[in-house]
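Q: What does the predicted 3D structure of Pyridoxal phosphate-dependent transferase look like?
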Amino acid sequence: MPVGAALWRSLRAHQVYGANTDVGKTIVSTILCNAVNQRKSEEKSAFLKPVSTGPLDEADDRHLRRYAPNTLTKCLFQFDEPTSPHIAAQKKKATIPRDDDILASVHKTLSGWAGSGISFALVETAGGVHSPGPNGLSQADLYRPLRLPIILVADSRLGGISSSISAYESLLIRGYDVQSVLLFRDDYYQNHEYLGDYFREKGIPLLPLPPPPRRPQSQDTDSQERDREALYNYYSIVAGGSDVVSLLDELNVKNEQRLYSLEEMAGRAQKTIWYPFTQHHGMAPKDITPIDSAHDDFFQTYVAPENPSQQGNLQATFDGSASWWTQGLGHGNPGLALSAAYAAGRYGHVMFPGNVHEPALALAEQLLQTVGNPRLQRVFYTDNGSTGMEVALKMSLRATCDRYGWDATMEQINILGLKGSYHGDTIGVMDCSEPSTYNQRVEWYRGRGHWFDFPVVKMSNGVWRVEIPELLRETLGEDQEFRSLGSVFDVERRVRSGAGECYRKYILDTIENLVLQRGMKFGALIMEPIILGAGGMLFCDPLFQRCLSDVVRGNPQLFNQAKPAEPDPQTELSWSGLPIVFDEVFTGLYRLGRRSSASFLGVNPDIAVNAKLLTGGLVPLCTTLASEEIFAAFSSPEKKDALLHGHSYTAHAVGCQVAVDSLQAMNRLDENGSWNEFKNDWKEHSTDDGLRPQEVWSVWSHGLVSDLSHAESVDGVFAIGTVLSITLKDAGGAGYTSTAAKGLQARLAAGGPQFNVHSRVLGNVLYLMSSVTSKKETLREIETLLREALL
């Protein structure tokens, strides 16, 4: 279970990292704790060693107990082997603590100290920054959720400049705040001189300390006694020095500044920031959540405690919207951060037209292979889903007008789509959606298209249903029931059913009426496969989308009566009727458990747009993939015929490199069986009627979906991939303006004993979304909260 980051007003807690092994971390800790104990009688210090290795009589906490006698000391996990923790732990397999247990124990200990009058605490690591913990995870990653401010003990020895700077950069890239650097003065190597200048430029104070007395070569009793006395004197003198006292004052100020900044953040934001998708009328600072950091699936959100001495000021909060659907590999992923740093250091940004760099080329090739659509051969880069869809719109309209000989400057070209669609906020793609709350006050909005109403999929009272809109029941028939979600997705069988025939006839008749009776011209079919996200998490019957695609491709004569199309398709990869555009910004790249959501439909689009999960949630990037035939529509001797679209940061090297590594990581999860436990849970509830259902699964348990579907306040629920959607009943009417889901949202925000849950609502729909790396234990804890709130 997650822990809150370690921050208290009453306790100044710091983590001591070493640039290497044997650099004197424990000596530095002893100096600082003695300095605190000497300053004021009311101040008390504490020392925590989470993991210690080696003989018990040489343990670091015992050193503190002896030479800083007024310091409270504790060691959580002790291994007597004098080796790295991961090796020492292997030799005592029965006692290896889990990483989560180590974090929880550290936080519990510090929290207890915060309420007991301890004012200063040090958490000392073992070895260097990247020395492995008991389970092999680098300490820099192991302790990252706590995000304690860092005291870095630099290396004064030969080579210490390099190791010290490397340690600092490793901490920095993981989001730690290094607040001070200490090292022992060595007048020969003079590392303190060089590193003092280096860290001064970073605004980090460096304090050189006199080296401790040398250990006597003889181990007789007299020598050991003289050694102890020399150390007592050393600690007394150094701890009382003005430089050390000044450093403690500075650390105290930084702790206060951090708290003050978090306290004031919401008020300052309210005065200066214009939030997206937010009505500011009546908004107060209490409506804004300050986030100190984020790690894995969790925000660290600031909470003003009623009693600051009893609890931390930072609360672990599950990111239930996957940060607007972008999170794939967890917040603060060190691998992706390193990828970004590598590309930033190698390129920065380089202009793209007429040039190419390795990350952009590698991503284009890898993405085409990952998606696995033989039609798609070209990759166009933009920076977000809206602009990527804007490019897709330009591509499709040009290809259609070019084939049919239309002049779009002389007549309106429309699109076919689905009700509730949302493709972004740029003016072009805004016109690809029906009138709604999103666009009704946008002065340039015109709405150029026809949007089909459609059957939706949901579980209600334990049964999977395809629910037909009331106005279409006479045409499409009554609701359908299915034994499993996999049966709903058995599109190849269902397309030959009576429902498939009704769907095709309705779609064909509608398009004929629009073209022949109303004289409309269409340039593209644009759809969000499976789930229409911003429109309200609408789960479209996959059979309807399949039939819509089949009708458009199978009846090219529908779309240009004056100039019938050439025999079409010329090849299997040619577009027919209209180019089909799939907006997979939300649903693509494993969001629904598969590499491409198009695979659920058995349809290969002519254009596909990916963003959101493309970079694992780290940086903005979008790709618009197109067929060679679409690409050829822009080929001409004239510059004006080119696709004149782009951004200053097109194919930004940082984004491309991060996307390459993100895709590789997700592909590995898919290939190595990381999701098998989730898949098996849903396989157990597949059909038992002899059919072979499609593999459809979710990280959210089938039992939860079934249980919630029986809740009195729930109209319907579904889960697929990382998405869970709960539609609540609203007597006043559903839709984006409904407030029916606000109560459930508030209950989740109140959370449970482990953490609370940040979520967003779309009218009467509350949805939750995880990363593709979310832990089963975390998700089941959230499921418990949902059951308590709804059942």
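A (community wiki): The structure tokens above were generated from the sequence. The longest helix spans residues 242-272. The chain has four domains: 12-258, 272-318, 334-671, 677-790.
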